[in-house]
Design goal:
about 140 residues, two-stranded antiparallel sheet, 2 strands
C-alpha cells in the first residue's frame, strides 16, 4: 500500500501550519515556497480540511490559513482519514462482499491486523510530536 500524494502533501501542509501555529494566519504562497507544492494543489487540499474544522481561514491583507485546533490535537491519522477516506490493505477488509472467500479466507485476518496497526500508528502521531521529534520547533 502506498499513501497518495494528497495525504503526503496534506500532512506537509498541516505540519507547516503547525510550525507557525502561534504566528497568526499563513498565506498559501508561503507554504507553497517552503514545501515546494503548487498553490493550486494546496487550495484543493485545504477544502476538505476546512470542512472537517481542522483549518480556518482569515480574510484580508494579513489573512491566510491557520490550524483550527492545537497541533497536539491533530494526528496524521486525522489528516489521512480526511484526505483519503478509510483505506485498507485489502478491499475485503472494508467490503467483505467483494470476495466470495471472505468467511474461510486464511489471509484476511493478517490484512485486517496490518490495517489496524497502520491506523493505530497514524493515530498515535500528532503534528506537535512530529515537530518536537524533528527538532524544527
Amino acid at each position: 500500500m502506498k499513501l497518495s500524494t494528497r495525504s503526503r502533501y496534506g500532512t506537509r501542509m498541516m505540519l507547516d501550519l503547525a510550525q507557525h501555529y502561534d504566528q497568526g494566519p499563513v498565506q498559501m504562497g508561503d507554504i507553497s515556497k517552503r514545501e515546494n507544492i503548487s498553490v493550486k494543489y494546496l487550495e484543493q487540499l485545504i477544502i476538505p480540511l476546512k470542512k472537517a474544522n481542522f483549518i480556518k481561514s482569515v480574510r484580508g491583507p494579513k489573512g491566510g490559513h491557520m490550524l483550527a485546533k492545537p497541533p497536539e490535537k491533530i494526528t496524521v491519522g486525522d489528516i489521512v482519514g480526511i484526505l483519503e477516506g478509510r483505506i485498507s490493505l485489502s478491499n475485503c477488509i472494508e467490503n467483505p462482499e467483494v470476495c466470495d472467500r471472505t468467511t474461510g479466507c486464511l489471509t484476511r485476518g493478517v490484512w485486517e491486523e496490518a490495517t489496524k496497526a497502520m491506523y493505530d500508528k497514524l493515530n498515535s502521531v500528532t503534528l506537535s510530536k512530529m515537530i518536537n521529534e524533528s527538532g524544527c520547533n
